[in-house]
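[Meeting: bench + compute handoff]

Bench side (C.D.) handed over the final construct sequence. Compute side (W.E.) agreed to return the predicted structure before the next meeting so the bench team could plan truncations. Sequence as handed over:
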Amino acid sequence: MLDFADLAVLLDRYAGRPGTPALREALDRYAGGDARSALEEVIAELCVANGLERPRENVVVLGRVRDFYWPAARLVVEADSYAWHRSPAAMADDRERDAELTLAGIRTLRFTWSQATRRRAYVVSSLRSALT
């Protein structure tokens, strides 16, 4: 009966109100979940194996579920697998999602399966740079 996306929109609308930060933190913890794909698992494991801060996974940020989110760094990482991101409509949606975050001052990085499995050092270096 509760729509997390609708609640997140309300929290954005009333960001300056007392209690909003605490409710947002609770929502992020409750709405978040574990990795939903093999690619997300690989990226999460890269973070742990390389001593990077563990992100919040699959949480609502600006009304949409994002794969990984580091609130303190204002960073979102999206795991772009071919299965979910191959159509023109999916590509257009991804660009819209990126624009929403950029306009809100949140940076977005996107990594593919090939990058996360064959270019691990690149992914780790990118994450480390973005988190510092």
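W.E. noted at the follow-up: The chain has one domain: 4-131. C.D. will use this when planning the next construct.
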